Amino acid sequence: MSPLFRRGGDKNPRTGPGDRLVTLIRKPGCHLCDDAQAVIEEVCGELGVPWDQKDIGEDKELYDRYWEQIPVVLVDGEQHTFWRVNADRLRKALTE
Which residue stretches belong to region Disordered (predicted)? Predict the structure, then answer.
């Protein structure tokens, strides 16, 4: 299994938002992906949460799992949302 999916199964308690990880699964030329990235940059920047992005075209496992849902947002390796990202919902997920 990809390390991307293992993080969500950690048993260690998190101490704060900086211990979280947001991952945007996207593809080039996707306007919804650009919109999702803007929300992620805003919320993660505000909370000090690291984030990264993966290109679905460069990872067969991600492609097979998410190709119909792009963009997809993972929080700690678990699917949080797809298509549209709500800033308030993401903020709540990262601070609870």
Answer: 1-20
